[in-house]
C-alpha cells in the first residue's frame, strides 16, 4: 500500500543506524487485566463513497475499563486492513470503547487525500486518533489534534519520525528494514542453494518514494550484499517501480517487460507489498515460468500470498502482524488516559512464514476473515 512503515522506535537493523525512540517488544509489553468473561457486543455499520469508507464498532467491557471513549483510525482502505480492523474491534470491545474507521480507497491514495482524511476525523473529536505517518503532512495534522485534546498514536508507518517525536506519540508497527533484510536473507540463501552466485532480483515497489516501503527493499539489498561478501557472489536487488497499487494489469505487464529485459540475468523477485507479490506471480505465470524457477520473496501476508507459498510461487513471507497494529493502540491509549502511564512504541514485526509453518499462518488468516465478517469490517 502506499506507505507501510519505517519506524520511530529503536531497532537493531543489520548494517544500519538505529532510529531514535523507545519501543516495547511483544514479549515485554504488558496488557492491562482481562475480565473472566468477555462479551464482545460489537455492532458494525458502514457507509462508503468514492472518497470515504467508515465502519463503527462498540463493545461492552469489564468494570475496570473506566470511562467509555471513542477511537478513530484513518487509513487507505484495502485488503491489508483486515487484521488491523479485527484488532481494533477486539481491543475496543474489551475496553467498552467505540471504534470507527475513516478512510478512502487505496487507489485514491495521495498525500493530500490522507491528510484530508485525518482532518475530517479530527472534526468528529474522538478521544483517540490513530493514523499511519505516511506523508509529511501527518505530523502537523496530529499536532492540531493534540491541541484539541485528542490523544494521538501512529500505527503501520512512521515515514517522518522527526515530525512525530516532538508530539510524544507512540508508534506501533514493524521495523521495515529488518523485515526486508530477513526476507532478502532467506531469498539469497535459497538462490545460493540453487547454485546461483550472480544475477538480478527485481525489487518490486509501488511507491519507492515512501521510506517505509523502500526500507524493505534496502534491507533485502543489504542481505544480498552481506551474502555476496561471505560467498564471493555478485547477486543484487534492483528497485523497480511496479505500479501495482494503482493498476494490477499494468503492473503485470511491467513485470513481464522487466523480466524480458533482464533475460538470463533474472533470478527472482523481492516484493515490498502484497500488490507487488500478486503482480509478480501473475507475470511469472503469464510468461510460462515453472513453479520455483524464479522464487518470489514477500513481506506482506495475505490469503493469496499464503496460497502461493503452498503452490511454490512464493518462497516465504515476513508476517507484518497487522493485528497488533490494531489491537495494541487502544490498550496503550487506555494505559495513558486511565493510568497516566507513558505509552511507548511497540514492534509488531512477526515471523518468517514458509511451508514449514504455513498451516498455522493460514489458520490465523482464516480466523481473521471470519471475525472480520462478524465485526462488519469494510475492505473496499
What tags apply to this protein structure?
disordered N terminus; alpha/beta; six-stranded mixed beta sheet; nine-stranded mixed beta sheet; single chain
Characterize the largest beta sheet: strand count, sense, and whether it forms a barrel.
Answer: 9 strands, mixed
* Shape type: elongated
Structural class: alpha/beta
| Strand portion | 15-25%
* Count of distinct strands: 15
Strand order, largest beta sheet: 1-14-8-7-6-4-5-3-2
Q: Determine the fraction of residues in helical runs and give it as a percent range.
A: 25-40%
Helices, by number, come to 10
Computed CA radius of gyration, to the nearest angstrom: 20 Å
Detailed description of the structure:
Helix 8 links the parallel strand 12 and strand 13. The longest helix is centred in the middle third of the chain and has 21 residues. The protein is elongated. It is an alpha/beta fold and 380 residues long. It contains 10 helices and 15 strands.
Outline the secondary-structure elements.
Blueprint (H helix, E strand, L loop, with lengths): L22 E2 L20 E4 L4 E6 L11 E8 L3 H15 L2 E8 L5 H13 L4 E6 L4 H10 L3 E8 L12 E3 L2 H18 L6 E6 L5 H21 L4 E6 L6 H15 L3 E6 L2 H13 L9 E3 L4 H9 L2 E5 L3 H18 L5 E3 L4 E2 L4 H18 L5
Parallel strand pairs: 1-14, 4-5, 4-6, 6-7, 7-8, 8-14, 9-10, 9-11, 11-12, 12-13
Antiparallel strand pairs: 2-3, 3-5, 13-15
Helix pairs in contact: 1-9, 1-10, 2-3, 4-5, 6-7, 8-10
Amino acid at each position: 500500500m502506499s506507505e507501510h512503515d519505517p519506524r520511530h522506535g529503536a531497532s537493531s537493523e543489520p548494517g544500519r543506524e538505529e532510529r531514535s525512540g523507545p519501543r516495547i517488544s511483544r514479549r515485554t509489553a504488558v496488557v492491562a487485566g482481562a475480565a473472566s468473561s468477555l462479551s464482545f457486543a460489537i455492532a458494525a455499520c458502514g457507509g462508503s463513497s468514492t472518497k470515504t469508507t467508515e465502519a463503527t464498532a462498540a463493545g461492552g467491557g469489564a468494570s475496570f475499563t473506566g470511562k467509555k471513549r471513542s477511537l478513530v483510525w484513518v487509513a487507505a482502505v484495502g485488503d491489508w486492513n483486515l487484521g488491523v480492523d479485527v484488532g481494533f474491534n477486539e481491543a475496543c470491545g474489551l475496553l467498552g470503547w467505540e471504534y470507527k474507521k475513516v478512510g478512502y480507497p487505496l487507489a485514491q491514495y495521495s498525500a493530500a487525500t490522507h491528510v484530508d482524511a485525518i482532518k475530517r476525523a479530527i472534526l468528529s473529536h474522538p478521544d483517540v486518533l490513530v493514523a499511519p505517518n505516511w506523508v509529511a503532512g501527518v505530523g502537523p495534522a496530529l499536532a492540531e489534534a493534540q491541541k484539541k485534546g485528542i490523544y494521538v498514536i501512529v500505527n503501520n508507518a512512521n515515514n517522518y519520525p522527526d515530525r512525530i517525536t516532538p508530539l510524544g506519540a507512540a508508534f506501533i508497527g514493524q521495523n521495515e528494514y529488518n523485515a526486508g533484510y530477513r526476507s532478502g536473507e532467506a531469498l539469497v540463501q535459497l538462490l545460493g542453494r540453487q547454485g546461483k552466485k550472480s544475477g538480478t532480483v527485481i525489487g518490486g515497489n509501488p511507491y519507492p518514494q515512501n521510506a517505509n516501503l523502500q526500507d524493505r527493499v534496502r534491507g533485502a539489498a543489504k542481505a544480498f550484499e552481506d551474502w555476496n561478501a561471505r560467498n564471493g557472489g555478485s547477486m543484487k536487488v534492483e528497485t523497480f517501480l511496479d505500479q501495482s497499487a494503482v493498476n494490477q494489469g499494468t503492473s503485470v505487464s511491467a513485470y513481464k517487460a522487466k523480466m524480458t529485459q533482464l533475460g538470463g540475468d533474472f533470478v527472482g523477485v523481492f516484493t515490498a507489498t502484497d500488490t507487488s507479490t500478486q503482480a509478480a506471480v501473475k507475470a511469472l505465470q503469464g510468461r510460462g515460468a515453472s513453479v520455483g524457477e524464479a522464487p518470489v520473496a514477500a513481506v506482506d501476508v495475505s490469503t493469496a500470498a499464503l496460497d502461493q507459498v503452498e503452490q511454490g510461487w512464493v518462497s516465504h513471507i515476513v508476517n507484518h502482524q497487522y493485528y497488533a497494529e490494531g489491537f495494541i493502540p487502544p490498550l496503550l491509549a487506555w494505559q495513558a488516559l486511565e493510568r497516566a502511564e507513558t505509552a511507548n512504541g511497540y514492534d509488531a514485526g512477526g515471523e518468517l512464514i514458509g511451508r514449514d509453518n504455513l498451516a498455522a499462518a493460514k489458520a490465523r488468516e482464516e480466523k481473521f476473515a471470519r471475525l472480520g465478517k462478524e465485526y462488519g469490517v469494510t475492505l473496499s
